[in-house]
Amino acid sequence: MRRYEAAWAWFFAAPAVLGFVLFAIGPIAASLVLSFTDWPIISAPSWVGAGNYIRLFTRDPLFWQSLKVTAIYAATSVPLGLAVAFGFAVLLNQHLRGLGVFRTAFYLPSIFPVVASSVVFLWFFNPEFGLLNAGLRAAHLPPSQWVYSSATALPSLILMSLWSIGGTMVIFLAGLQDVPPHLYEAVDIDGGATRHKALHVTIPMVTPIILFNLVLSLIHALQAFTQAYVMTQGGPNNATLFYVFYLYRTAFADGQMGYAAAMAWILFVLIVALTALIFRSSRRWVYYEGER
Amino acid sequence: MTVAMAARRTTGRTARLSRRARASALRGTAYLACVAGGAVMLLPFLWMLRSSVMDPAQIFAYPPPWIPHPLRLRNYGDAFSAVPSLRYLLNTLTILVPVVAGTVVTSACAAFAFARLRWPGRDWIFALLMTTLILPSVVILIPTYLFWARAHLVNTFVPLILPAWFGGGIFNIFLLRQFFRTIPRELDEAAYIDGASPLDVFWFVVVPVSRPALITVAIFSALAVWNDFLGPLIYLNDPNKFTLALGLTFFTGEYTSQWQLLMAAAMMVIAPAAVFFFAAQRYFVQGITLSGIKG
Q1: Residues B126, B114: contact at Cβ < 8 Å?
Q2: CA distances from B48 to A116, A265, A287, B32, B53 (A)
Q3: CB B211 within 8 A of CB B286
């Protein structure tokens, strides 16, 4: 019976396990090998050892620029997005009438294709005829160049990222609804106020969800691409040269496959290291019910 | 009744009253915040909607009017026929249908193996698969591209479809595994006693009761295909093979500053995504159980 069950299990799991080998482990390993080669897509690859990495770290100012842009983008859009998503989730957890409408309004923009939202925001940000500057002018504030100036382009894209927090919000909301009501009742009995509930019940109980959302949105932010491709082409003056956009350009416009593979591996190592760091720190700030 | 008791009762009542007043003030603030938040979230898209039915004169008017007059619906027809939109739509669906099928079938199979069958190595293989949750897709981009190029399948839909038949993504497997685990084991056991095979149990026990979860996975994978940009951008270079997302950027390049057409085109790409969402909304609530994220 045991053997029989195991055979069936492998039958069911085979596509996923095969996919893991073919579309995860295999390419990761291949990517590492590629990163030690010079492979102009039109001709054969040649072995260059650590050459790509040395060139990236010592002679490629655009690599550092793209790293900087991406770091700023992730470091600001992720905490901001988490805070707004959490705030919306708390609002939606208040049992208000018309909840469904609000939930839809908060969530909907996040399922729109980024390509289409990018076109919409390009118009929204338009310095002459866009809604944002019309609003600023009406309020007698100085208009902005938004994505069209190197000083404001990246902040504009960070602002835009707040429209895609829906997924994060829904996960927070599910977490909030999982908090057992008797914990709040206990605070009531002890004469605690709303802020005590937030501080001693809600936040500790959702820390695992914060951890989950933090890791996933960080990985997502570090791979931002489409906005830059559609709205700014990495400009103006490389102000929005996202890492993955630069990687894409290196691989598919310049055809330098080996060099781009080295970039991909650096990002991979960075993400693994960051995730490990977050998980390590999480022992201090994430509370698991039923542990202890 | 003593004076002290009466006094206590009055303070009790005022305390209760003020608590109620505070609660309703809180509710009012929450409402206001919801309305304001919702308005801000929808603003760019209302702006799109309004611009998509305006004539150029109105689009560039100052101060910008919110109500289109006259209502120019033919922007939609113009935008649709300016590029081979029908072709793009067909291409998108040609990718979408097999991807959704592959995702649902193979992720449900894997989830069944991980949730309902006992076999050696199950838990650590699942943990191994879970690591791909943090795997940045760009790491595998280049070797995968070179592989498909070697196989002469670049500029076909194969690289965009086939991977979906290999597990359909760990997140979907995870979601379905969580759901399958909530089904009472007695159902499986009763079937096994009657001589059913695991395939029978999967098909006649697990799948029928898991419809909401399976539909959720189907919808999310359909949305992912509809929204995918990097994949088609890399693999499809022949304009006749473009998807809608790709066609939209092509259109944007051709019709810069014809904002009424661009907004109509964006609207036509966005609206189906919204329709998907509304059609499926009622399944989400039943289908997603997130209790597994903790611990």
Answers
A1: yes
A2: 10, 39, 43, 24, 9
A3: no
Whole-number Å distance between alpha carbons of B252 and B258? 9
Please state whether the peptide bond connecting residue A61 to the residue before it is cis, i.e. omega within 30 degrees of 0: no
How far CA A233 is from CA of A44, A245, A291, in Å, comes to: 30, 8, 49
ipTM score assigned to the predicted complex: 0.85
Per-residue pLDDT of chain B (295 residues; tens, 9 = 90+): 455 555 555 555 566 667 778 778 878 888 888 899 999 999 989 889 888 888 888 888 778 888 888 888 888 888 888 888 899 999 999 999 999 999 999 999 999 999 999 899 899 999 999 888 888 888 899 999 999 998 999 999 999 999 999 988 898 999 899 888 888 888 888 899 998 899 999 999 999 988 888 988 898 899 899 999 999 999 999 999 999 999 898 888 888 778 888 888 889 999 998 888 887 776 765 544 444 443 3
Contact predicate A263/A250, CB 8 Å: yes
Nearest residue to A160 (alpha-carbon basis) of A171, A152, A168: A152
Whether the Cβ atoms of residue A176 and residue A93 lie closer than 8 Å to each other: yes
pLDDT at B125: 93
Among B residues 9-68, those touching chain A with beta carbons less than 8 Å apart? 26-27, 30-31, 33-35, 37-39, 41-45, 47-48, 51, 59-60, 62-64
- Which pLDDT value is given to residue A189? 86
Start-end of H helices in B55-194: 56-59, 74-82, 85-116, 122-130, 137-150, 158-161, 170-180, 185-193
Answer yes or no: do A13 and B113 touch at CB < 8 A: yes
How far is it, in rounded angstroms, from Cα B6 to Cα A196? 31
In chain A, helix, strand, coil percent, each to 5?
A: 75, 0, 25
Does B47 contact A120 at a Cβ distance shorter than 8 Å? yes
B249 touches chain A (CB under 8 A): yes
The answer for A95, left when phi > 0, alpha when psi is -120 to 50, beta otherwise, is left
Are the beta carbons of A159 and A100 closer than 8 angstroms? no
Please answer yes or no on whether B270 and A117 come within 8 Å at the CB atom. yes
Chain A residue numbers touching B234 (CB-CB < 8 A)? 248, 252
Report chain A residues whose CB lies below 8 A from the CB of B106.
15-16, 19
pLDDT tens-digit map of A151-182: 999 999 999 999 999 889 988 888 888 888 88
Task: Check the CA dihedral A238-A239-A242-A245 and report its sign.
Answer: negative
d(CA A87, CA B30): 10
